[in-house]
Each structure stands twice: as structure tokens, then as C-alpha cells.
Design goal:
The protein has 259 residues and is an alpha+beta fold. 41% of the residues lie in helices and 24% in strands.
Length: 259
């Protein structure tokens, strides 16, 4: 009888450990929202909403970290776009958030100016949203390891588009099987690597690395190009022609951003 009990307990423990392992490997989902704005007034209204209504509300509803990023001053889209990055543990959590916010009176009150904005004084021109899923090589987002002032940082967000789905999948494979390891080795402090599952410009992947300033960012890319691991994989036939367009955004985190 004792032997049977031990076997049963062992089986339960094994199932529990397997469950934990599966949970650990579960890939995040991300919403990447782009607010297109036309004025400093819209940007101020959006900042107030995100900092004082949206982010506190999603924290309360179980989303611990949210990123808000803006183009650095030298970029042509400076003052024209604001990026919101929201990580979710599941699609159910993503779908449920809007309903939770609709019932959250504190959020409704704090965000009233944004939520109830007049038709002729909107807080943005348009919203563009992409739904992403973390790559298997980094199934969870990570916080940047940078400690310098947020206003001085350069967060580089890249979208690599491919001509076909097959070529896109090969580029994702390239990241999972070595490319993201190079970024980590060079201390680029990546926040996420993700596959786009719904959005514009598909098929494409999106990722974000972080750098203390522009000089260090440029040095990181110089080191990347000379890295022996990159040299060993970049010309492999299986990875030929995997990127048809590279859309690069150079950003910094808003002062109230969690990431």
C-alpha cells in the first residue's frame, strides 16, 4: 500500500513539474499600438491618459510592466508617433482587458479627458495596432538593464519584412538559432523578439534592443557586423533573401514608461 502511495505521489509530482516547465515555455503575446499624433497638445493629452489612467489601471488588472516609447529628436517621425507596448500572458487576457477597463470606475474617471474627448479635439489622428507573439528563443519579454537617464537612451525597434511566408519563417529561425544570442552577447539588453500574427506589413517580425546612447548603439552594430557568430550564419543558403525591408525606429522611453 505504501509503495502504491509513493508511486502516486511521484506521478503527481512529475505532472506538476511538467506543468511548470510548459508554463515556463509559454510564449507571451504583445500588443504594439502606434498612436499617430499631429500636435504637442495631442501628445500632452495622450501622456496624461497613459501615465495617469491606462498604466495604473492595467497594473491593477495584473499587467505589471507596460512600455511607452517616442521617436528621438533626430528622427523624421519625432513628435508624430507614440508607441505603446503591452505584454499579455494569453490571448484571453488580451481580449478581456477592454471589458475590465470599461467597468473600472477609477480608470474611467482618471482617463475622462481622453475617453470623452470631443470629435474636433481628439487625442490622436489614428491608432494602428499589431498583435505579436514572442519568439521561442525568448518566450517572455525582459526589462532593459540600462540605468542611465531615460531621455538619453536609444531603444531600437526593428521590423523585418519578408517577401513570402517561407522566407519570413526562415528569418524567425535565424533569430531563434543564433541571432538573438549575438545581441545578448553584445549587451544590447533586448526587451522582446516577436512574430506578427495580426497587423500591417506582414509577414514580418519585430524586435527591440536598448542602448545607453546613440554612440553606443552605433558601436553595438559595428561589433555585430564583425561578430564571428554572425559571420558564420549570415551567408548560409537557408537564410538567403529572408529580409525584403527593414523598418527601423529609434526611440526613447517616456519618463513614466515601465520598460
Amino acid at each position: 500500500m505504501k509503495v502504491k502511495n509513493l508511486i502516486s505521489l511521484g506521478a503527481i509530482a512529475l505532472c506538476f513539474l511538467m506543468s511548470l516547465n510548459l508554463q515556463a515555455q509559454k510564449r507571451d503575446f504583445y500588443e504594439l499600438r502606434t498612436y499617430h499624433i499631429e500636435s504637442a497638445e495631442q501628445e500632452a493629452m495622450l501622456d496624461d491618459y497613459l501615465a495617469n489612467a491606462f498604466i495604473p489601471a492595467v497594473h491593477k488588472h495584473g499587467i505589471a510592466k507596460v512600455g511607452v516609447f517616442k521617436p528621438i529628436a533626430s528622427q523624421p517621425n519625432a513628435g508624430k508617433e507614440v508607441y505603446l507596448f503591452v505584454p499579455f500572458k494569453s490571448l484571453d487576457e488580451y481580449v478581456a482587458l477592454e471589458g475590465k477597463l470599461a467597468k473600472d470606475q477609477a480608470y474611467q474617471t482618471a482617463g475622462s479627458a481622453y475617453i470623452n474627448a470631443a470629435h474636433d479635439k481628439p487625442p490622436y489622428k489614428r491608432i494602428e495596432t499589431s498583435l505579436l507573439q514572442a519568439m521561442t528563443g525568448q518566450p517572455k519579454f525582459t526589462e532593459s538593464e540600462l540605468t542611465n537617464a531615460k531621455k538619453d537612451r536609444v531603444y531600437e525597434m526593428r521590423s523585418y519584412e519578408a517577401a513570402t511566408e517561407r522566407l519570413y519563417k526562415q528569418k524567425v529561425k535565424m533569430f531563434n538559432e543564433g541571432e538573438m544570442d549575438i545581441f545578448s552577447k553584445l549587451n544590447c539588453s533586448p526587451i522582446f523578439y516577436a512574430e506578427t500574427i495580426a497587423g500591417a506589413n506582414m509577414p514580418n517580425l519585430v524586435y527591440m534592443t536598448t542602448h545607453e546612447n546613440m554612440d553606443i548603439r552605433n558601436e553595438h552594430w559595428k561589433q555585430f557586423g564583425a561578430d564571428p557568430d554572425w559571420a558564420g550564419m549570415k551567408d548560409l543558403p537557408e537564410y538567403a533573401n529572408t529580409v525584403s525591408r527593414n523598418d527601423t525606429k529609434l526611440l526613447y522611453p517616456a519618463e513614466y514608461s515601465d520598460l
